[in-house]
Write a structure and sequence with these properties.
This protein is α/β, with parallel strands linked by helices. The chain is built from 16 helices and 18 strands.
Length: 455
Amino acid sequence: MQRPILVVGHKNPDNDSIASAVAYAYFKNEMAKKNNEVDADGDYLRYVPVRLGPLPPESKWVLQENGIDAPKVIAHVHARVSDVMTRNPITVNKNLPLIEAGKILRAHNVRALVVDDDEGKYQGLFTMRMVAHRYLEATDLAGTTGLDTLAVANSLVSSLSEKVEDIMETDVLTLNKDGLLSEAVEDLMNSSLREAVVLDDEGCCIGIVTRSDIAKSPRRKVILVDHNESTQAANGIKEAEVVEVIDHHRIGDITSSNPIRFMNLPLGSTATIITLQFRQNDIEIPQHIAAVLLSAILTDTVIMKSPTTTQVDRDQVEYLAGILGVDATEFGLQVFQCRGEDATMPVEEIVGADAKEFDVADAHVLIAQHETVALQTLLNREEEIRQHMRKLVEANNYDFVLLLLTDILAEGSQFVVEGNTRMVDRVFGIDSSSGSVWMPGILSRKKQVASKILA
């Protein structure tokens, strides 16, 4: 069965990143059924949403309210052992006679069988090498003892009535299915055997990997949503096969070996683009997916107050709210209120929950945003927040860290800067070296802040 295609947002995922992965995976699976897109085994292509970090509180709430499983967290998109292993290999019981095991080898045209105990736990491998070794032992016996051919044959047949466990290979390399393939290659090439087995946590064999398998050099297929820059992408992205990009940010440095579908539109949210895809392809949006999409558009456009908001965004909000039978503004406020109490929220979450790295000229910077309806509460914690930002500057060699504390109701942002403040001050004509600065009307990190700094 073909491996699933991963749909993944950026590091430090925000609500749009999570929602877009969930909704677009659903859309692609429906399109595969509609267009009869199948793999070599005749199964529909399968798309799976994943994420690169913790769920934002609003994403967790929306997913739970609508009975949707949270996307699985992945650490990287490097090739793994599970990408090449033969799943569910043929197994035999350790008490099986050798002659019967040999028949199974021939019948299935394989070089090795997995040997299990009575409880299904892995014990070793029964290989064609062992059968050949038995035969050679018998012929050697004939050469040294002078036994005739019939006597040798009888001796060989008699030995084949022994049990598999008597001659099975036990010094076999074992692997974890989520282990890096690059590391497994080195281990297997240094092994005396041609095979390695993949065990689960219970000690049961779930796969087998041969030297022929590792020569395939597979690449995990991924669709990127809500980003297209390698600094924001999953670790190992250069080893993966990017098959599609859906985004609403500036065009970054993601490359592909083949032409791909690259949809990048100047809209307020990636979820807006995905909503359009549903509508343009006549794929019905069920209520649970509509709720996810609506929440993402409203958080990314700050309930349609952000200057990134377009008429297209407003139209999709109206459409999705109609599916749900809700007032969009009230729904949006409910989503924002799920973010928790700013007075007790850890500073790591305030600064890091929605933070993106950027490279500008020779500078490496971090621009973060935290949206709130209680700005003064956060300002009371400014020194605590700054201490954490200074640690980030030092630990990651950032030129500066800029945090936007965005007041949804007052429609502006408080700029908090640590590191080299001169670049931010020059771009915005402010002095942030002596304290945070209120910037009225600044709601969009992408359009009003990052675009100016990166220009």
